[in-house]
Every structure is written in C-alpha cells, then in structure tokens.
Amino acid sequence: MIEHRHLGVVGVLGFSHKRGTRAEIGYALDRRYWNRGYATEAVRGALRWVKRDWRRNVVVAGHFVDNPASGQVLCKAGFLYTGDVELRPSSARGGEAVATRMMVWLA
Ligand SMILES: CC(C)(COP(=O)(O)OP(=O)(O)OC[C@H]1O[C@@H](n2cnc3c(N)ncnc32)[C@H](O)[C@@H]1OP(=O)(O)O)[C@@H](O)C(=O)NCCC(=O)NCCS
User: Fold this and answer.
1) How much distance in Å is there from the Cα of 28 to the middle of ligand 1?
2) Which CATH number covers residue 28?
3) What is the distance between the alpha carbons of residues 37 and 59, in angstroms, rounded to a whole number?
4) Ligand 1 centroid to 71 CA: how many Å?
5) For atom 18 of ligand 1, which residue has the closest CA?
6) How far apart are the CA of 11 and the centre of ligand 1, in A?
7) Confidence of residue 21 (pLDDT cuts 50, 70, 90)
8) Is the pLDDT confidence value at 18 over 90?
9) Distance from the alpha carbon of residue 78 to the mean position of ligand 1, in angstroms
10) What pLDDT score was predicted for residue 23?
11) Chain segment 37-91, per-residue pLDDT in tens
C-alpha cells in the first residue's frame, strides 16, 4: 500500500518475481491523487529498499504507450528504456492487449 500521512491509502505498489525472471515493479495510484509526485516518491522509496534490504540490483518495469505519465515516473526514478515493446493485457480495458514500453533499472 502507498500510504499518505494525512490522506491514508492513495495507491498500491508491488513486485512480481517469478523464479528465473527479473523482479518487475508495478503500481497504480488513485486518480484523485495523480500529478502530486506521490508515485515518484513511492517508486524511489521502493528502489532504496530493493537495493539495501532485498539486495537485488536489477528491476524491470513496463508502461502502456498511452500512459506517458507513468514513463515519466519511471524515468525520474532512474529507469531507462530497453527499446522493447511487449503486448500486455490491460485489466482496465477488459484484458485487451496493449503495447507496453519496457524499461530497466540497475542499482
Ligand atoms: C502512472 C501513475 C501511477 C502516475 O502517478 P502520479 O503520482 O500522478 O505520478 P507523479 O506525480 O509522481 O509524476 C507524474 C509525472 O508525469 C508527468 N505527466 C503527467 N501527465 C503527463 C502526460 N500526459 N504526458 C507526459 N507526462 C505527463 C507529470 O508532469 C509528472 O512529471 P514531472 O514531475 O516531471 O512534471 C498513474 O497515472 C496511474 O496510476 N496509472 C495507472 C497504472 C499505471 O500506469 N501503472 C504504471 C505501470 S506498472
């Protein structure tokens, strides 16, 4: 959970890490709280934990091509574009496959 001191829970963030694959970060913020820097702060905090406590040094992420704000969040947190574009299901669009720009972060 991404919890704000005064507002309570404003979003969620987590990692998927299936055996043999890179850890992948994902997150979503309640629309009421977009563009206040909360996602960027949450991702940066999570990456500090990844490096210091989880002791991983590579994290991947992807953002839908039509969500440039998410790409900006990942760029600000230090991710770089790999150049790969994958088709990923969007639950908000009934599972429709949506082009997703892949990114990577190195500790
Ligand atoms: C992505 C998401 C988490 C953004 O959260 P947020 O708290 O609003 O993000 P921040 O405020 O930290 O940063 C947003 C940045 O995007 C920029 N931005 C906003 N709208 C934009 C647009 N249409 N085009 C380009 N940049 C945009 C903002 O200016 C800001 O950058 P800046 O600080 O350099 O000005 C939110 O859009 C979301 O929950 N999306 C659905 C789920 C998702 O896409 N998850 C990510 C993939 S796992």
Assistant:
1) 10
2) 3.40.630.30
3) 21
4) 7
5) 69
6) 13
7) confident
8) no
9) 14
10) 95
11) 999 999 999 999 999 999 999 999 999 999 999 999 999 999 999 999 999 999 8
Pocket of ligand 1 (CB under 6 A): 26-29, 34-40, 63, 67-70, 72-73
- Domain of residue 39, residue span: 2-106
- Residue 78: exposed, middle, or buried by beta-carbon count in 10 A (0-12, 13-18, 19+)? middle
Residue with CA closest to ligand 1 atom 16: 69
Q: Characterise 17 by phi-psi region: left (phi > 0), alpha (psi -120 to 50), beta (else).
A: beta
- Number of domains composing the chain: 1
Q: Tell me the two tokens of residue 69.
A: 């704000």
Q: What count of other Cβ atoms lies within 10 Å of the Cβ of residue 79? A: 23
